[in-house]
Amino acid sequence: MPKLSIIIPVYSEKDTILKILDKIEKVDLDGVEKEIIVVDDYSNDGTREMLPSVRDKCKIIYHSRNQGKGRAIRTGMEQATGDWVVIQDADLEYEPDDLRVLLKKIQEPDVSVVYGSRRLHHNYFKSRHSGHIFAIGGIFLTWLTNLLYGIKISDEPTCYKMIDAKLLKDLNLKCERFEFCPEVTAKVAKRGIRIHEVPINYYPRHKDEGKKINWKDGLEAIWTLVKYRFKK
Predict the structure, then answer these.
(1) Which domains does the chain have, with CATH numbers?
(2) Ordered strands of the 161-164 beta sheet
(3) pTM to 2 decimals?
(4) Could you give the angle at which helices 132-149 and 215-230 cross, rounded to 10 degrees?
């Protein structure tokens, strides 16, 4: 039976972690096994104390200190045994049912990378109340990616990146924080591998609700894209 490894990096998400795990558990992947890997990046809000209640449903890994989202993803990759890997944020911005759409695409011949594009969905600028500044930042990063690497994608910083597990582990990732997305995109693009996209839903949350990414992470993403474009 083919298997999908779902890596969930978690840092202080006590209000949503059990909800997102419940949603993932309920998604029917049409014969594909789910391997759920939760990496707690030293949460300090009670999240760590909640996770033992779901240890029968997923692998749980605890960092002994806060190391960043990128490092948490890399920790999860070390434990992943699936044919494909996808990243799932611990909040409720992304709808796990959309994993079915990505999975259907990546099972097509000669497809090894699939991004869930928020911009291909009609509600990207209308969904809830979250800041358009994040949307504009994402559009700029996508434009820069296309310019630097000569590709055509619509949503570079999307969380939903589903990738062939062998390929992902062969990319030799170095990310520590939020630069996971641009590093993966850069290294895949430099190999000449096509990034396929499918539309997904998106329900952004505001900074007051716990959104952690900020303008400094945007600058880091720009630097990452430029660095790997010219790095041998």
Answers:
(1) 3-230 (3.90.550.10)
(2) 59-62, 33-40, 3-10, 84-87, 161-164, 113-117, 196-199
(3) 0.93
(4) 10
Instruction: Give residue-wise pLDDT tens across range 41-77.
Output: 999 999 999 999 999 999 999 999 999 999 999 999 9
CA 120: distance to chain centroid? 17
Within 13 Å and on the Cβ side, how many CA atoms surround 193? 19
In whole angstroms, what is the distance from residue 157 CA to residue 16 CA? 21
> Of 26, 34, 25, which is closest to residue 1 (Cα–Cα)?
34
* CA 213, 77, 157, 147 torsion-angle sign: positive
Q: Which two tokens stand for residue 222?
A: 């720009």
Rounded Cα–Cα distance for residues 84 and 232 (Å): 27
Count of residues in the chain: 232
First CA to last CA distance, the chain: 38
- Token representation of residue 161: 């990146």
